[in-house]
Write a structure and sequence with these properties.
Chain A has 3 helices and 10 strands; from the N terminus they run H-E-E-E-E-E-E-E-E-E-E-H-H. With about 200 residues, chain A is of the alpha+beta class. The longest helix of chain A is centred in the last third of the chain and has 28 residues, at about 155-185. The radius of gyration of chain A is 37 Å and the shape is rod-shaped. The termini of chain A are far apart. In chain A, about 20% of the residues are buried. In chain B, the strands form 2 sheets. In chain B, strands 3, 5, 6, 7, 9 and 10 form a 6-stranded mixed sheet that branches. A 4-stranded antiparallel sheet of chain B has the order 2-1-4-8, with no helix packed on it. The chains are: A alpha+beta (about 200), B alpha+beta (about 290). Chains A and B meet through strand 1 and strand 9 of A and strand 1, strand 4, strand 7 and strand 8 of B.
């Protein structure tokens, strides 16, 4: 009788312990990922800097973190630097990693910057892979290059043409003045006091 | 003519009143009727709240600052999250627990959403607001809600980013910051979860060098230079003996008068020395006398 009772108590403790561990003491990694477009102006044919940052707010290290961005198709963008697919072996708890990609748009117009996918193992022992998504930067307008150039380029060639056109406008009055002035330039008199 | 005028006046002052008194039974007065105001006077009283319903259920600041009762009911009904969803907040700018936020600078945070259920969730929007720390129902500032409309599949996570600028005017004050995440599930149930609901203090970041401190240093430099110059002047004037005589300028002794004829050409000078100098008046008098 006492043995049955004791074994029941032990069994109950084990069950509770297992259940308790299952819900409370489980240490998991939790990743928060952000995707930010760093540019002020998005211009066709010029670099766009996209920054990804992955933060671990869980208690365990995230293992085998894969960051994949399939939002930049090769027909609309070309890669200027960095990889669109990157792997981090471990992200420790309360740590963060960042990754940067440079892309160049091939066309202008409105483009919806979509989220990139993050997949990781929540802890060392877990088998299942957690899939998450980064934050979306949203829709941005990619300006045509000629509009951007009109506003921001140094316009060296335009200034040269302007200078060339201004030369006759400056030269003609100057020559007129010089001719008149040279007639009336004072000549040094030999003696003092001689009025002419 | 005047006769005609008199006659006209006669007609006007006698005939017209007769006509007036005859017509309309002598009634030429207008009675003021009071408008029928239905129930208005009963309802108005000075200290009551004015309930403005703009139909959207949005927050309205009323006279005594209390929120409308309708809204409180709405919020209470929806101010809970789904048990299948798990949210977490992380401040990325500035990094920390979010208890101290800089005034006038960008504050950015990420909200992570995990779908632990079996159905899709759709994240609608995040809205943040500053509230009175003693009473979280009193809104001080409401920030723009950013709509996301992100679908989160079961067992998956999503992150959304939100940023705002605390106004400079709030520096050195504690405020309650409430961040609400609104989402709904595939069945159409909407949820509103307070992801962050704490008192934060707005701090003013001390910048090293701004315009004011730069010009303060310029002013101090100029003032010290002024002091140096003044001190130098006083010291040098003190050293000099008082009442020192000015150096006497030497002039030639051969001049009869003070006029200096150096500027005249030499021929004119010779001419002057030959002829006696006379004033024009005496010359004229002499001429007249000589002619006569």
């Amino acid at each position: 009788m006492m043995l049955v009772l004791r074994s029941l108590v032990v069994l109950a403790a084990v069950v509770v312990g297992v259940l308790g561990e299952g819900s409370e003491g489980e240490e998991r990694a939790r990743l928060l990922a952000a995707k930010r477009v760093h540019n002020l102006y998005l211009v066709e044919g010029r670099d766009i800097v996209v920054q990804y940052s992955v933060h671990n707010v869980g208690q365990a290290a995230a293992v085998n973190v894969q960051l994949t961005d399939s939002g930049f198709s090769t027909e609309d963008f070309e890669i200027g630097g960095g990889q669109l697919q990157v792997k981090f072996d471990r992200i420790a708890p309360n740590a963060n990693v960042s990754h940067t990609v440079v892309v160049r748009p091939k066309k202008y117009g409105y483009f919806n910057f979509t989220a990139a996918e993050v997949s990781y193992q929540p802890s060392e022992e877990s088998v299942e892979i957690q899939i998450g998504y980064t934050s979306e930067p949203g829709e941005g307008g990619i300006i045509a290059f000629r509009d951007y150039d009109r506003k921001f380029s140094p316009h060296v060639f335009d200034w040269l043409i302007f200078a060339l056109l201004m030369i006759p406008a400056q030269l003609v009055p100057f020559m007129m003045w010089y001719n008149i002035k040279s007639k009336y330039t004072a000549v040094q008199r030999p003696k003092k006091g001689k009025t002419e | 003519m005047l006769g005609g005028l008199k006659r006209l006046l006669f007609i006007l002052f006698l005939v017209l009143p007769v006509i007036i008194s005859i017509t309309n039974g002598g009634h030429m007065k207008a009675w003021a009727h009071e408008d029928e105001v239905e129930g208005e006077e009963d309802e108005l009283s000075d200290d009551d709240e004015v309930n403005v319903d703009d139909g959207t259920g949005g927050e309205v600041e009323t006279a005594d600052g209390g929120e409308e009762e309708e809204e409180e009911d709405e919020e209470e009904a929806a101010a809970k999250g789904s048990p299948d969803a798990d949210t977490v907040i992380l401040f990325t700018k500035p990094v920390g627990a979010g208890t101290e936020l800089p005034a006038g600078k960008l504050v950015e945070f990420l909200v992570g959403f995990t779908n632990n259920g079996d159905k899709d969730f759709i994240l609608d929007a995040i809205d943040a607001s500053f509230r009175y720390p003693m009473d979280f129902n009193f809104y001080i500032q409401n920030f723009t809600a950013i709509p996301y409309n992100r679908a989160v599949k079961p067992r998956q996570e999503a992150t959304v980013m939100y940023s705002f600028y605390p106004a400079e005017a709030f520096a050195a004050r504690p405020l309650g910051l409430t961040v609400n995440l609104a989402y709904h599930d595939a069945d159409g149930n909407s949820f509103l979860e307070a992801v962050f609901n704490q008192t934060v203090s707005i701090v003013e970041l001390d910048e090293g060098m701004d315009g004011e401190t730069f010009f303060l240093y310029v002013f101090l430099l100029a003032f010290s230079v002024l002091l140096l110059v003044a001190g130098h002047h006083f010291l040098s004037s003190f050293g000099r003996k008082k009442g020192s005589k000015k150096a006497v300028v030497e002039v030639g002794t051969s001049k009869r008068d003070d006029v200096d004829y150096d500027w005249l050409p030499k021929e004119v000078l010779n001419e002057i020395k030959k002829t006696p100098r006379q004033s024009p008046r005496t010359r004229k008098a002499k001429r007249v006398a000589s002619s006569k």
